[in-house]
Amino acid sequence: MKWEQLRQSSLEDITAWAETQPWCQAMADCAQDAEWHSEGDVWTHTKMVLEQLHALKEWPSLTGYEQTVLVFTALFHDVAKPLTTEVDPETGRVRSPKHAVKGEHVARNILRDLGCDLETREKIARLVRYHGRPAFLLERDEPTHEVVRLSWLVNNRLLYLFALADTRGRDTDSMTRPEENLHFWKLMAEESGCYDQPYPFDTDHARFTFFRQEEPNLYYVPHENFSCNATLMAGLPGSGKDTWLFSNRPDLPVVSLDDIRSELGVDPTDNQGGVAQEAQERCREFLRAGTSFAFNATNTMRQTRGRWLDLFSDYNARIEIVYLEPAFDTLLRQNKARSKPVPEPVIRRLAEKCEPPTWMECHGLIMPNDNMHTQLG
Q1: 29: how many CB neighbours lie within 10 A of its CB?
Q2: Residues forming a β-bridge with 87
Q3: Domain coordinates of the chain in residue numbers?
Q4: At the topology level of CATH, where does 3-191 sit?
Q5: What is the mean pLDDT of each run of 10 residues along the chain (377 residues)?
Q6: Which H/E stretch holds residue 234?
Q7: Which 8-state DSSP code applies to residue 365?
Q8: CATH assignment of 229-366, given 3.40.50.2000, 2.170.270.10, 3.40.50.300, 1.10.1780.10?
Q9: 111: exposed, middle or buried (C-beta count within 10 Å: 0-12, 13-18, 19+)?
Q10: Global confidence as pTM
């Protein structure tokens, strides 16, 4: 079953489909800690959360699209527990550390294989990643900062509604973090003006600076005197980054890792240290000269992107990220048409670890087919 058919299916049909999948069977075989989940295994809890979503008083007022996002968030929110569950040898307690972080990747890959569109997939994957945050709000040093940060990653209203269903979808009566705690998330998000929209920073640079500060100041509006524009391309091999630059930024000089490898005679499987060093020096030349440019590489993992973004930020560049992700079969076809195609197994491994960029990383984010994107002026 593919995404277009699945998203229009009834809850019963979606549940029946899920139960034929190996990841769901693993959830059914995965026990949970009785203090938090006396209802039993992960799949039993998941089905209870799905039922509780439909029982929310707000459910009828949600759009069909919002309901779809929440249903599949529920379906996948604990999908990585079988991969992370461990039993403490001393206490016998069952734990699943970082299951939400791992779950984001699992959900993303399942949805990609189903043919889910990029925007919807990322909404679901990020809700899976952050689904447990509302329950811990009162334990944060700066709770207002927490709801502001999350508002640029997820919709706080949908996150709050899911947290309600997740809390109610269990048999445990004695909760150390009661449902009332979740209401503080809604209240704080409403007071901060980011319950159903991203927090309205005064400028893109104020937002960019907030996310990069060690001790963020929500009301700080930094002076803007950018040295140049730096365009960072991101996407799997064959996604069309060169074509996009030619069509949309034809006048920009480009620092390309592929081009540098060719110049230096370095194979993609060889040590890339020299290639990266040469790319950094070429970027610095443009940055020192105040010349706008593009940096073209896969950049599909946040940690990898971060090194380049730090460099650009150090020189006070205004940063845009362009992320391209065509349908996977299209991408594989485009890759094969390249002069030096990347082996398909390599692309699939990269796809499994891919972390599409977010608004926390840049001034402007362009994701074609994502109606939230903005471009630099």
Answers
A1: 11
A2: 94
A3: 3-191, 229-366
A4: Hypothetical protein af1432 (1.10.3210)
A5: 94 97 96 76 95 97 98 97 86 84 97 95 98 91 95 98 94 64 94 98 97 93 96 96 96 96 84 91 98 97 97 98 94 89 92 96 86 37
A6: strand 229-234
A7: E
A8: 3.40.50.300
A9: buried
A10: 0.92
